[in-house]
């Protein structure tokens, strides 16, 4: 008998077909959003769960589904999964690192360029019919080339962003839990390790690419924004909750910094409506990894992990290496 899995959200049909060769698949191609109770019910009797960042995978879900052996998230971030509870419950948990590094770094640049050079703001103005004449100072903003880029969270995505800055003759500083090796720093456009305060007060553009955890909650709050230059921009590619959104809205309204570019929000897909009244913020709906080839690679990576986990192999991207897997 094939193991049973539940695929929590709609996914590429070819990935579902691949999963169906290995598993008895129940899927959610209609892409409904389940309540916690509905999800628990859907996982009933399943050996594996193919999840996304929109499903909270909790201790209660593990307790209600003692047969569950693996939860494979289609994302590099896994703050939706209680990994400690998974380990306790003997459930293998996996993510999809690496396959999205370059695509996510590309989007970090898209947001940085759009924010600094006021791309969406000026487009909205043009579409609204306001363009009657050229003016020397319309939509002027900071430069990107030749400026200092500050990266908080210098993992593989942060390093890929830094590499792209070479063509813009930028000076790169970074802050991270640990300092990179001299070789990796050299490849990351000679990035220089600095303390968080120095980074915030020196950088012209600050980009956040660190994982969310209790420790990184509100890494950027009012006091941190206060350290930034008035012409600086802030880009959040990481997770909602890394930035105190209410504090950022106040700072943008009071022009404490020039602008922000945000792909992630506290409580998304709901978000603080205060952002909508501001012209100096670029808002995108959590799409940094959303190139077609990369989303397919992420789905296949999650499938690879599920196939390995449910055939008694160690999944390539096991998060809880200390788990005692159920067989
Ligand atoms: C997307 O945010 C991811 O974590 O992959
Ligand atoms: C701007 O379009 C210029 O020609 O300087």
TrEMBL record:
Show the Pfam families listed in the entry: 2-Hacid_dh, 2-Hacid_dh_C
UniProt keyword terms in alphabetical order: Oxidoreductase
What PROSITE patterns does the entry give?
Answer: D_2_HYDROXYACID_DH_1 (PS00065)
Q: Superkingdom of this entry's organism?
A: Bacteria
Per UniProt, residues of the D-isomer specific 2-hydroxyacid dehydrogenase catalytic domain are: 6-320
In which family does this protein belong, per the annotation? Belongs to the D-isomer specific 2-hydroxyacid dehydrogenase family.
Q: What is this protein called?
A: D-glycerate dehydrogenase
Organism equals Herbaspirillum rhizosphaerae
């Amino acid at each position: 008998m094939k193991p049973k899995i539940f695929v929590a959200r709609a996914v590429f049909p070819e990935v579902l077909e691949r999963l169906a060769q290995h598993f008895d698949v129940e899927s959610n191609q209609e892409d409904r959003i389940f309540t916690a109770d509905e999800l628990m019910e859907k996982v009933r009797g399943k050996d594996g769960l193919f999840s996304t960042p929109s499903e909270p995978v909790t201790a209660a879900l593990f307790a209600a589904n003692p047969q569950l052996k693996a939860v494979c998230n289609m994302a590099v971030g896994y703050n939706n999964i209680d990994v400690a509870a998974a380990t306790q419950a003997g459930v293998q948990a996996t993510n999809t690192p690496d396959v999205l590094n370059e695509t996510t770094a590309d989007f970090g640049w898209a947001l940085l360029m759009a924010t600094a050079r006021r791309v969406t703001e000026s487009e909205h103005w043009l579409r609204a019919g306001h363009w009657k004449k050229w003016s020397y100072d319309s939509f002027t903003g900071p430069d990107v080339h030749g400026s200092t880029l500050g990266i908080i969270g210098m993992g593989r995505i942060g390093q890929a962003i830094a590499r792209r800055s070479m063509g813009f003759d930028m000076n790169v500083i970074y802050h991270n839990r640990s300092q990179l090796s001299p070789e990796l720093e050299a490849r990351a456009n000679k990035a220089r390790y600095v303390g968080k305060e120095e980074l915030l007060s020196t950088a012209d553009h600050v980009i956040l690419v660190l994982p969310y955890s209790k420790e990184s909650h509100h890494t950027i709050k009012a006091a941190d924004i206060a350290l930034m230059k008035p012409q600086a921009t802030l880009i959040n590619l990481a997770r909602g909750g890394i930035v105190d959104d209410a504090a950022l809205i106040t700072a943008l309204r009071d022009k404490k910094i020039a602008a922000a570019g945000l792909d992630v929000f506290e409580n998304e897909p709901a978000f603080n409506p205060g952002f909508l009244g501001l012209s100096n913020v670029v808002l995108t709906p959590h799409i940094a990894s959303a190139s077609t080839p990369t989303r397919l690679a992420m789905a296949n990576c999650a499938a690879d992990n599920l196939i390995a986990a449910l055939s008694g192999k160690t999944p390539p991207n096991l998060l809880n290496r200390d788990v005692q897997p159920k067989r």
